[in-house]
Each structure stands twice: as structure tokens, then as C-alpha cells.
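Example for tutorial group B:
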């Protein structure tokens, strides 16, 4: 009876369609269905890579420090580290010096040059020679000019007069309207020109005995550049060396205005041309309406110092 029990069991298995395993443990020792599919599979990136050749693995890969720097903002440079432009490409002490950093420094260089440009300097107000100033005052008083000595003027930017005079009359009977601030040398030249050239010319050009009673000035001392330009050399008006005459008031009440008169054949035209030409004997610079557009309505007269007493008269 014992020999027939296994046979009966096997016959039952065959009738139900079961089969015996070819090898390995019995079916009862296998893990439950689905266990093998759910087992964790190693990630591809965790698999060991083939050893690099000649030690050149990851040669072109950035180091972890640079990757971190590229994701975080560049730190602000400390005051002790220099200017912002010098440290604009620094990354927390990174010592890499690539072409990009070099190009950035070259681009910043012009800006640094502009910042470091030296400031504009102006000459100080020129001091009067005491002996020359005293002589000038004496001669101006002898001509009968009316003036007062004013306080020293220093407006910066090279503008000013060391010993200015506030002139109200260039001769006893010839006013300066309005009164003007200038150096003694300029006032003396104006007084001499009026007495020795302007008055005789008016007596000839107009009715006998006609004199000039007023010099109507458009500008004396003023701190500005030449021709009121924004750039260029400083005007002689800014040194108290110049006066602009816009017109003359005659003793008969008539006013002779300065205007272009090169082709004016009247005695008025002759008068203006005569006094303009004679002014070059007393002043170092004479500019009339024929010189340029900036002087079409006045005579510019100044006593600028030039070598060998050179005159510029136009």
C-alpha cells in the first residue's frame, strides 16, 4: 500500500496539468508572484564606469565650485578690494583668469580714464604792479576821469581784478553809461582815446563844436568766455581789460550807433571808421562790425598784453 501512494499523487498532478520543474528548488520555495518585478533595479548613473584612459576623465567638465558660483549671485566687492570695475568679474576668490575676464577689464579701462581725468585748473587773478598802478591812477586823475577804487574781485575760474576801478566818467564832461568796472589801464586807454581821437573826429564829422557827451557801453567786467561761448579761451572782459562801446551820445542830443558802415558814404560812416582806426593806437585789440557777427552792434576794445606791442585790429 505504501508504494501506491506516490503513484496516486503523481497521477493526480498529471491529470490537473501540473508539471515538475526541470531543476532548482521546488515550486513551494519560489518567491510570491510579482516579487521579482518589484525588486529595485540599480540606477544607470550608479553603475561603475569604465576607468578613464591616461587620467583625462572629465577633463572638460567644470569643477563643482564653478558650478555653484554660476548659480549664485556674484558677491559685492569689499572697499579694500578696489573699484567696482576692477572686481566686477571676481567670484568669491576664484583665481581663474580666462579671456572673458581680460576682455572685461579692457572694456572698463576707458571708463577708468574718464574718472581719473585731471580737473580743469585756472590761473589766479593777476596782481597789479604797485608802481605801475600808482602811475596809472595819477595819469587818469590828471585827465579828469571820475572813478572810485573798488574791492578786489575774484570770481574763480580765472575771473577777477586785483585793483578794480568803478568808472563813471572818462573825462570831466564825458560820462560812461552805465558806469563800468575795469582795470586802471583799460580806463586810461579809454580816456585818452576819447580825448585825443573821438572828440576831434566828432568836431569834424558833425556841426562845428559838436562833442561826445556819453559813451554808452554794453559790457565792461564780466566773468565769461570769449563771445559768450561755452568752450574756448576766457574773455578779456573777465580780467577787467575790455570795454564794449555800443553808441555815442552827442552834445546836440543825437546818438551814433555802432553798426556795419564799411560802405556808408556819409559823415556818420566816416566818423565811425575814423574812431575805429584810431582806437588801434590806444588799445591792443579792436573789433568792429566788420570783424565777425558777434561784434555787429559794438566796438570791442581791450588792453591784453601781447609780445612786441602787437595789435589786432579788425
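The residue assignment follows.
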Amino acid at each position: 500500500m505504501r508504494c501506491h501512494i506516490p503513484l496516486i499523487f503523481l497521477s493526480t498532478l498529471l491529470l490537473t496539468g501540473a508539471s515538475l520543474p526541470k531543476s532548482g528548488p521546488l515550486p513551494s520555495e519560489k518567491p510570491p508572484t510579482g516579487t521579482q518585478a518589484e525588486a529595485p533595479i540599480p540606477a544607470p548613473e550608479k553603475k561603475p564606469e569604465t576607468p578613464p584612459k591616461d587620467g583625462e576623465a572629465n577633463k572638460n567638465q567644470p569643477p563643482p565650485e564653478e558650478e555653484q558660483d554660476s548659480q549664485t549671485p556674484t558677491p559685492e566687492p569689499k572697499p579694500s578690494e578696489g573699484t567696482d570695475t576692477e572686481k566686477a568679474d571676481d567670484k568669491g576668490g576664484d583665481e581663474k583668469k580666462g579671456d572673458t575676464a581680460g576682455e572685461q577689464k579692457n572694456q572698463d579701462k576707458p571708463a577708468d580714464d574718464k574718472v581719473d581725468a585731471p580737473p580743469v585748473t585756472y590761473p589766479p587773478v593777476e596782481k597789479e604792479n604797485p608802481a605801475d598802478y600808482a602811475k596809472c591812477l595819477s595819469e587818469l586823475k590828471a585827465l579828469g576821469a571820475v572813478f572810485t577804487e573798488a574791492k578786489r574781485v575774484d570770481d574763480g575760474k580765472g575771473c577777477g581784478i586785483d585793483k578794480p576801478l568803478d568808472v563813471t566818467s572818462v573825462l570831466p564832461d564825458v560820462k560812461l553809461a552805465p558806469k563800468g568796472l575795469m582795470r586802471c589801464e583799460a580806463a586810461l586807454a579809454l580816456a585818452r582815446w576819447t580825448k585825443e581821437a573821438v572828440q576831434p573826429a566828432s568836431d569834424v564829422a558833425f556841426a562845428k563844436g559838436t562833442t561826445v557827451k556819453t559813451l554808452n557801453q554794453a559790457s565792461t567786467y564780466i566773468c565769461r568766455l570769449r563771445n559768450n561761448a561755452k568752450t574756448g579761451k576766457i574773455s578779456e572782459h573777465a580780467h577787467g581789460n575790455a570795454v564794449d562801446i555800443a553808441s555815442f551820445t552827442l552834445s546836440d542830443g543825437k546818438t551814433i550807433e555802432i553798426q556795419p558802415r564799411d560802405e556808408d558814404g556819409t559823415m556818420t560812416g566816416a566818423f565811425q571808421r575814423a574812431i575805429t582806426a584810431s582806437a588801434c593806437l590806444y588799445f591792443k585789440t579792436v573789433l568792429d562790425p566788420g570783424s565777425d557777427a558777434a561784434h555787429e552792434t559794438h566796438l570791442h576794445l581791450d588792453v591784453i598784453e601781447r609780445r612786441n606791442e602787437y595789435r589786432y585790429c579788425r
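Residues 184-205 form the longest helix (22 residues). Compare this with the pattern of hydrophobic and polar residues in the output above.
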